[in-house]
Design a protein that fits this description.
about 525 residues; mainly alpha; two-stranded antiparallel sheet; 2 strands
């Protein structure tokens, strides 16, 4: 099984190189891209079953160079699960982008640039999830960020270049902080390998541990869009092409959350910043969802809900019990799938209605009933209505918090419930105005929501375009995946809870250290 681990990163990189060679052959690039992501999906599924049931966590020293000199890749249940889910999302969005490129004659997704950059983005994400040392994690971040710089500015419009510059500056600041933190960790401990860091960290004084802890959290919090470091996200994501926005919303912030999981549960076990994380989680939930309620443009609404729901994940990590970490992992899986699906649905709305402003879009229930369903199902799921996965994930988080039972924890649970209600309100208000409002219904309805007239992009309009079947198929497929999170919630939640228990008990790192030592 260990031979499969490097392929998770190697396959998309090789696919990207092939796509660059065949830059003028669109069909070849499509076949290579789909085949690469499909192979990664299959390998990740095989590794997930193996590490969960038979082999346990797998450690691979690349090129035979052992630590601390060599690069070690680690795959446990958490890493394998997130790689598999990421491959599903990347594959679905790739199909969506193929349809969009064919319909628009590749105006927004120039084929010679898009497919290589897309596979490099995937390679960076996969590398970050299986990185066994902080510097390789940094390399994973940089790979995906370089690719994202290309993807977020596709089309070279003024708005995309402007927001792309903001995104690049923020990402560079985060990377500099992360690199400085890595240097500090190496200076203090003589290693950047996560196993060795976890063993040696207790030798440092608590104040030094706290400084290192805060430095890494600050860098990862920017990448995860945790309040108040989330200011860049709502303006950056909505301007990109629909497929790019969907991938960014679903995956990029979760890589930052994943890094925080490793930091909190495995690197700084004896250095407790849980109260700070609780306060940050509450602020992220409340401020993010209040921002969503004040928006009139669908992609901005979803961008703010993305920020608010990062707060749930930080909430689970602040509790820092096996149940809470397992529930957080389940919620990450849920949010990756559902948030991506919603952005794809909004991409279809933009093509069908020529706008994503809820002040302008109306009458879609009669004109596009299937589109109404494709938006409605993931919207109520994200809002947390039972019996969907959003409700299951939130209930598991609240249950973990209630078991702790402190007054602060009760405040966070109330804040989480309020955020869920406001999420449902913001998304259902958009659904009601866009789908149920009749074409001749204008004056009275607009007077009731006149306060949204000054919201950013409230008057945005675009060209109406046809919706190719493959775009609808990809979105519908993702809706089915969101429903499967509910249908198979029991087995999936069990896997996540086992992952949370193993991470918090330190079993993963002990087994990985033994594997590396044996080699």
């Amino acid at each position: 099984m260990s031979a499969l681990v490097p392929l998770l990163v190697g396959i998309p990189l090789i696919g990207a190189a092939i796509n660059l060679v065949f830059g003028r052959r669109k069909k070849t690039q499509i076949v290579v891209s789909v085949a690469s992501l499909t192979l990664v999906l299959v390998l990740a599924a095989i590794l997930l079953v193996a590490v969960d049931t038979t082999t346990g966590p797998i450690a691979v020293a690349i090129a035979g160079w052992d630590i601390p000199l060599g690069i070690v890749l680690y795959v446990d249940v958490l890493a394998a699960l997130l790689v598999m889910v990421s491959a599903i999302v990347l594959l679905a969005v790739l199909l969506f982008s193929i349809g969009q490129g064919a319909a628009d004659n590749d105006e927004d997704t120039p084929v010679s640039i898009f497919y290589p950059a897309y596979l490099i983005l995937g390679a960076g994400i996969f590398n970050a999830f299986i990185a066994g040392d902080l510097f390789n994690l940094y390399v994973g971040f940089e790979i995906l960020l370089v690719a994202s710089y290309v993807l977020i500015t596709l089309g070279s419009t003024e708005s995309r270049i402007r927001t792309g510059v903001v995104y690049i500056v923020v990402s560079l600041v985060s990377s500099i902080l992360f690199l400085a933190a890595i240097a500090m960790v190496y200076g203090a401990l003589g290693t950047v390998n996560m196993v060795q860091i976890s063993e040696r960290m207790a030798q440092l004084p608590q104040d030094i541990q706290t400084i290192l802890h805060l430095m890494l959290l600050l860098a990862f919090a920017i990448k995860a869009a945790v309040f108040p470091l989330s200011f860049w996200l709502p303006d950056s994501y909505p301007t990109a092409p629909a497929p790019v926005t969907a991938v960014f919303a679903g995956l990029l912030t979760k890589v930052g959350v994943y890094a925080i999981i490793r930091t909190e549960t495995q690197l700084f076990v004896d250095n407790d910043l849980n109260f700070l994380l609780m306060m940050v989680a509450l602020a992220t939930m409340i401020v993010g969802i209040l921002g969503a309620v004040a928006q009139a443009e669908l992609k901005r609404i979803l961008s703010f809900t993305l920020v608010s729901h990062i707060g749930y994940m930080i909430f689970g990590l602040a509790i820092n019990t096996p149940l809470a970490v397992g529930a957080t992992i389940y919620y990450i899986v849920h949010h990756i799938i559902v948030q991506t699906t919603l952005f794809l649905a909004v991409g279809l709305i933009e093509r069908r209605a020529g706008s994503t402003s809820i002040l302008k879009v109306k009458g879609l229930m009669r004109a596009a009933p299937l589109l109404a369903v494709l938006y409605f199902i993931p919207a109520i799921n994200l809002g947390g209505l039972p019996p969907f996965s959003g409700f299951i994930g939130k209930y598991a988080l609240f249950d973990a918090g209630a078991q702790v039972g402190t007054p602060v924890m009760m405040v966070l649970i109330v804040g989480g419930i309020a955020t869920s209600i406001l999420t449902l309100y913001a998304l259902m208000r958009a659904w009601n105005l866009s789908f149920w409002r009749e074409e001749n219904d204008s004056t009275e309805t607009l007077e009731r929501i006149a306060y949204l007239g000054n919201a950013p992009a409230a008057s945005i309009s675009t060209e109406r375009r046809t919706i190719p079947r493959i775009m609808t198929f990809a979105t519908a497929g993702m809706v089915v995946v969101t429903l499967s999170l509910t249908v198979f919630a029991g087995p999936l939640l069990d896997v996540c809870l086992r992952a949370g228990e193993r991470i918090t008990d330190g079993i993963t790192l002990v087994q990985l250290q033994e594997q590396v030592a044996d080699r």
